[in-house]
Amino acid sequence: MPETPTQRKKAARRYASPLRTEQARQTRQRILDAAREVLKREGFARVTLDTIARSAGVSVQTILANFGNKAGLFDALMRCDMESDFSGIAEAVRAESDIRQKLRVTADLFTRIHEAHAPSGGGALILPEPVGGSEGLSRLLAERAVYLRALAHELFDGVALRDGMTIDKAVALLEAYAGPPLHMILVRYYGWSGEEFRRWLGNALIDAFLPPETRETRD
Fold it and tell me: Which long-range contacts (CB under 8 A, 24 or more apart) does 163-169 make?
């Protein structure tokens, strides 16, 4: 029996739904990519939704519909970048067998991430303070801690660590050594090169986590 017009309309809606979902995903990703580039160029204080909308080829209303407001957009951007960055580090660490090399790879990738997210104009930090002030900072650190804990397990499961080192301490030290603030201080304010920071960070992580007998000569 031939389909009725109502049945054809229902079938069309079913087929159209995945297409609309993919289009919405692409639009959202295009906005995030544009926001990242504009943010690097102008910094959080100066960037506007109008500028991002023009760069993404969408309306401001589309941005608001997807993210609520400017703070929501950059909150989503930070989450997106954290997930991508940490998954990349974890994958690279799994490819290594020696814990010292794992830590050097970790140092190298954190350095690359900081350089990739640094403002292109050579000015202040992209986000001088996480959106939402101290509450936003607490939320950001809590979310980063989840990723750092997973990375710590990836690095140290089955590895002999220095006396007194726990996963909780490892998470805190990874944040302290490899987080954005220390890179900003040493590179942007004290003029270290990226290579100097990468080498120092690799050595610092080895010293922080491994017992003396398993360390190696510094490069």
Answer: 163/211, 165/209
Helical residues (DSSP H) of the chain, grouped into ranges: 5-42, 49-56, 60-67, 70-94, 99-117, 133-156, 167-178, 180-183, 194-209
Dmax of the chain from CA atoms? 80
**What does the pLDDT look like over 14-73, one tens digit per residue?**
555 777 888 888 999 999 989 888 888 887 777 889 999 999 999 999 999 999 988 888
At 133 the pLDDT is 54
- One-letter amino acid at 102 equals K
Residue 131 reports pLDDT greater than 60: no
Straight-line distance from the first to the last Cα atom of the chain, in angstroms, rounded to the nearest whole number:
77
Q: 165 versus 40: which is more confidently predicted?
A: 165
Q: Which domains does the chain have, with CATH numbers?
A: 1-68 (1.10.10.60), 71-219 (1.10.357)
Q: Quote the distance between the C-alpha of residue 61 and its chain's center.
A: 26
In the 3-class helix/strand/coil scheme, how is 39-86 assigned residue by residue?
HHHHCCCCCCHHHHHHHHCCCHHHHHHHHCCHHHHHHHHHHHHHHHHH
Output the CA torsion sign for 193, 195, 200, 202.
Answer: positive
Q: Would you give the distance in Å from CA 152 to the centre of its chain?
A: 16
